[in-house]
Amino acid sequence: MTPHVTIVGAGLGGLTLARVLHVHGIPVTVHEAEPSPAARSQGGMLDIHDHNGQLALKAAGLFDGFLGLVHRGGEASRVLDRHGTVLLDEPDDGTGRRPEVHRGDLRRLLLDSLPAGTVAWGRKVTAARPLGDGRHEVTFADGSTVRTGLLVGADGAWSRIRPLLSDARPAYIGRSFVETYLFDADTRHPVCAGTVGGGSLSALAPGRGILAHREPGGVLHTYVALDKPLEWFEAIDFDDAEAARARVAAEFDDWAPALRALVTDGETTPVLRTVHSLPAGHRWDRVPGVTLLGDAAHLMAPSGEGANLAMYDGAELGEALAAHPDDIEGALTAYEKALFPRSAAAADEATRVHHLCFDADAPHSLVRFFTDHERAA
Ligand SMILES: Cc1cc2nc3c(=O)[nH]c(=O)nc-3n(C[C@H](O)[C@H](O)[C@H](O)COP(=O)(O)OP(=O)(O)OC[C@H]3O[C@@H](n4cnc5c(N)ncnc54)[C@H](O)[C@@H]3O)c2cc1C
What we know:
Layout: E1 5-8, H1 12-23, E2 28-31, E3 45-47, H2 53-59, H3 63-67, E4 77-80, E5 86-90, E6 100-102, H4 103-112, E7 119-120, E8 125-132, E9 135-140, E10 145-148, E11 151-153, E12 171-182, H5 185-188, H6 190-196, E13 200-205, E14 208-215, E15 219-227, H7 230-234, H8 241-249, H9 257-264, E16 271-277, E17 290-292, H10 295-298, H11 306-323, H12 328-357, H13 364-376
The chain binds flavin-adenine dinucleotide.
Flavin-adenine dinucleotide binds at residues 8-14, 31-34, 46, 124-125, 154-156, 160, 177, 223, 273, 275, 294-296, 302, 304-308, 310.
């Protein structure tokens, strides 16, 4: 029988795996560093794709619950230039190929689908070591340890489990995001609300951009993208909200006021998200009793795929373990055999998409990408 599975990380990937294991009656514990499910706001809108994220939710038996969370109208998308000229405006056609949900709602759906106690909160892993015969010992920040016959690193970009399998370290991609929010936007920021529309907006130029999503409840969530070295961001005091906003907005001085206002009128302390990636094609030799999923396995430039891939990995691993009840190594081998080429292809595509969003011909390269894509579909 499959032994009790130990997952590190209660992100979307780790929780999808836990749920699929639970559906198949395989015992599991998820150790999560955060002290509680509400410890941190869970980011913004995610579009969940029919070829990976949605399949994972079906494997988890949660597809109907997911449909109840979809933000209707949220699939609309616009591409603008820095003058605010709309170059592409696609309404939500209601086909549901890429429905938008709030990451926090999706995480809650997964958490609520697990038996109480499955997730152990406040369990920050500091180290893990092999004990031989496929067993591992995991050490937590409070000094306590657990021993396990099957360990899964679902602990994101800076995984503490990855060193058991690989020496690879994430590298800065040369671009970062700064997050800001506007609330009650239709009433209090109508120009910004009208500019963003019902779904997402990408206003792009070479090396910079303003990306925004409409979230339920009239919230506008903006990511400012800037190609700058880490030192440039380190020189900004992000605890001083006003100064940080002004410094970032100064990079958009010659942009349309309705776009700049998404930054200058921001109502929260701007949050810096530096972007790192693992080498494309990251892989490892099979090590008994341990594997990785999601960002821990294939951290890549954000391209709208990372959360979808993490969930898909989780579902695939859960199904592989269920299909090989007496053969953990057979299950992990089958899972990794499909994981490596899938992740390598996705990482290549992520690099390509990320590049064309901000290349010398931005925003026209992205418009061409979308129109070519549609023609091919
Ligand atoms: C700016 C930005 C925008 C993005 N937008 C999108 C998008 O629109 N669509 C999309 O599909 N993807 C998007 N992504 C990518 C997506 O967020 C990630 O790929 C996805 O969250 C990976 O899921 P995961 O479960 O592997 O890891 P994570 O979501 O990172 O979860 C890892 C979990 O492990 C926990 N953890 C970490 N270290 C430890 C430890 N030592 N001990 C215990 N627990 C630990 C963390 O607290 C966390 O809960 C975006 C990423 C960025 C940076």
